[in-house]
Amino acid sequence: MIPTTTPTPIRCRLADGRELLFFDLPGHRSAPVPDRRPLRPDPHPPSQLRYDRTTGEWVIVAPARQDRTYKPPADRCPLCPGPTGQTSEIPAAAYDVVVFENRFASLSGAGDTALWEDTAGQPLSVPGRGRCEVVCFTSDHTGSFASLDRPHARLVVDVWRHRTRDLLSRTGIEQVFCFENRGEEIGVTLTHPHGQIYGYPFTTPRTAAMLRRAGAYRAAAGTNMFDDIVRDEVRDGTRVVARTDGFTAFVPYAARWPVEVHIYPNRFARNLSELDDTELDDFTELYRGVLRRLDRIYDAPLPYMAALHQYADTDAQRDGYFHAQVISTRRSAAKLKYLASSESVMGAFINDVSPESLAATLRRL
Amino acid sequence: MIPTTTPTPIRCRLADGRELLFFDLPGHRSAPVPDRRPLRPDPHPPSQLRYDRTTGEWVIVAPARQDRTYKPPADRCPLCPGPTGQTSEIPAAAYDVVVFENRFASLSGAGDTALWEDTAGQPLSVPGRGRCEVVCFTSDHTGSFASLDRPHARLVVDVWRHRTRDLLSRTGIEQVFCFENRGEEIGVTLTHPHGQIYGYPFTTPRTAAMLRRAGAYRAAAGTNMFDDIVRDEVRDGTRVVARTDGFTAFVPYAARWPVEVHIYPNRFARNLSELDDTELDDFTELYRGVLRRLDRIYDAPLPYMAALHQYADTDAQRDGYFHAQVISTRRSAAKLKYLASSESVMGAFINDVSPESLAATLRRL
Are B254 and A217 in contact (CB < 8 Å)? Predict the structure, then answer.
């Protein structure tokens, strides 16, 4: 594998002590100014992780987030550049890609406490350690990931890679989750193009379920479950959306959502840091291409959740196979899919859209 | 246990062959007329169950449901009584409680095929057998479960009990799920007070997870996990909302939702059919009381999902403990909780409301 050059960020601190990182395109050099806002360190108690004994899953209880910024007017966007250091989370006249610690973090303070694993059947809570970061994709308030030019989109992918490597190396972080929620229909409260990164101090329920299945699969079949799924999807072909040398995008056989696309590398890798330069270019192009197709389904920006499944190079996660997952709740031009009782209470998904017809639509666009 | 009298319904068929059952209050006697609508048996292919190999969960793929009735005007409500037999799903001048097979069913044709269990690592689909029923709580278009009088609310509980017993006795139905989705915010497309019943041909993911945990708990502690949870909640008290001789309502320790209340019987029972007359009265009162409190949180009808966790009297489900779960996505008077990437992709819930403060609010109301 060819090692790629990781961009080196300019690091500073916001007025309340949170970290802020500027990642520049070649030839650019960000010039941060001091954050002059009268911010103090968060006065709220940290969040709690609570163990749900009925399912064996952790729930993050974070009442401090109730006060978070909610749909500010465009001229007070906290993600636009703030050249005076008084109006924005990003005190600079301009930027390419920026990462900072979320002011309304549901997880914070990673590194100082390992998760207490002893359950013994009692109600358990531990401090909500971990990391919540915001990634601003561009200083253009009205852009989107899909509208970034090629080097800029690649820079965002490099930033995800940088943050993944950094956070996975910290004590107490089990899983690094890079994602983008887009659209008011998904509950997004800031429209400026941005994503988030969670460094969870536990393995999330979905990841745990997939690793359990992959482990059982290896024990039975001797191979990697995800490898075989990608091979089967390529062989069948009816759900494949696009394929390059390095990556395959398809609608999964048992898609839960009216819009759902997964993107896998054609060879096994656990996370972005195991991909080389050519593969990262390839991934950037296919990922951006899928997002562009999605916006053409209804000739309008599609509300979506776009997420990276990444795994650590550990025994417990050895069979985890990197992939991106993009889903939308839009089930027609005028209607949304709601997660009602079957999904929200019982976890039983009902999908009104056939995966094969979605794939055919996306291939055409 | 004192056996209770199960109400005997009047059974008829709709024009397309679907079953329709009238349950009457004492002294009432429904008088159905023929369904004169030009309905034909559903021309769509049945739904499919698809096995998600990455999680080991079944997904219901039901494209025929895309055309289902969507927010009709009040004067064309299909759940209001239709005395002419030409305007409604319920051809009668009046009714108390009615059950009929859903016209846009995601599961249908229970009893003729057992679920094919052999996976062998291949993509699997089986016909979407099962049962989807609609339960009309009252002929009053503007009512709600909380506004039903005591005997009427009890009749609805008796109907759930009747349907649970009937459907659990059928071949191929593994789990009976009675629930109510209320409010446009939950995606409800018909405002007439009604609930639904799903007879699933598989054990739902959430139920499977709880049974797994309960089995492991019994192996370790020798007792029923849910029994111990109820005991611990009563002892702690800070999350208890209300308690009667027969039942306890509390906010769970690791609540996932900004509003979440669970109601357990104070003694072990698997489903409604194992409760006696006094207990059913008790449950009805406490359940209705909780729903009334919920509507007072914001002085407005709360959008909610209300659901019964029921288990069959089988070895696999022996530790399943009956309980009701009511949840809402409303996190403040003006804001909703959305399930974005952390919840929808990773299953990691973030709750912005402290369970103890919710319980204190509900106790006061």
Answer: no
Give the residue from B352, B359, B349 showing the smallest Cα distance to B336.
B352
List B residues 293-352 in contact with A (Cβ-Cβ < 8 A): 305-307, 309, 325, 327, 331-332, 335-342, 344-352
- Short-list B180, B166, B161, CA closest to B274: B161
Task: Express each pLDDT in B137-160 by its tens digit.
Answer: 999 999 999 999 999 999 999 999
Domain ranges of chain B: 10-202, 207-364
Contact (CB, 8 A) for B96 and B152: yes
Which residues in chain B touch residue A337, judged by CB atoms under 8 angstroms apart? Answer: 187
pLDDT at A121: 46
Condensed to tens digits (0 to 9), the pLDDT of residues A146-167 reads 999 999 999 999 999 999 999 9
Task: Compare CB distances from B254 to A59, A217, A346 and report the shortest one's residue.
Answer: A59
Instruction: Answer yes or no: A192 catalytic.
Output: no
- B10-202 — its CATH code? 3.30.428.10
Tell me, yes or no, if A223 comes closer than 8 A to chain B by beta carbon: no
Fold agreement between B10-202 and B207-364 = yes
Residues of chain B contacting residue A55, judged by C-beta atoms under 8 Å apart = 206, 209-210, 213
Residues A98 and A159: their CA atoms lie apart, in Å, by 9
Q: Which of B60, B261, B342, B356 to mutate to test the interface with A (most CBs of A within 10 A)?
A: B342
Query: What's the complex ipTM?
Result: 0.94
Whole-number pLDDT of residue B230: 96
Look at residue A42 in the predicted model and tell me its pLDDT: 77
Could you tell me the CATH superfamily of domain A207-364? HIT-like (3.30.428.10)
Question: Residues A192, A194, A309, A323: which is the catalytic one?
Answer: A194
Out of B340, B352, B354, the one facing A305 most closely (by C-beta) is: B340
Residues of B recognised as catalytic: 194
Q: Which of residues 261-290 of B touch A (CB under 8 A)?
A: none
The C-alpha atoms of residue A296 and residue A9 are separated, in whole angstroms, by 35
Is B184 in CB contact (< 8 Å) with chain A?
A: no
Q: Scanning every residue of chain A, which has its alpha carbon at the shortest distance from the alpha carbon of B339?
A: A186
User: What is d(CA A260, CA B314) in angstroms, rounded to the nearest whole number?
Assistant: 36
B259 touches chain A (CB under 8 A): no
Q: How many Å from the N-terminal Cα to the C-terminal Cα in chain A?
A: 34
pLDDT confidence of residue B111: 52
- Give the bridge partners for A32, in sequence order: A92
Q: What residues contact residue B81 under an 8 Å CB cut-off, 6+ apart?
A: B88, B90, B92, B93, B94, B95, B139
CB under 8 Å, gap of 24 or more: what pairs does B308-311 form? B308/B160, B308/B177, B308/B178, B308/B179, B308/B271, B308/B272, B309/A345, B309/B207, B309/B210, B310/B164, B310/B175, B310/B176, B310/B177, B310/B178, B310/B270, B310/B271, B310/B272, B311/B175, B311/B207, B311/B211, B311/B270, B311/B271
Q: Is residue B51 over pLDDT 70?
A: yes
Cβ pair A286, A275 in contact under 8 A: no
- Please give the Cα distance from A2 to A66 (Å, whole number): 45
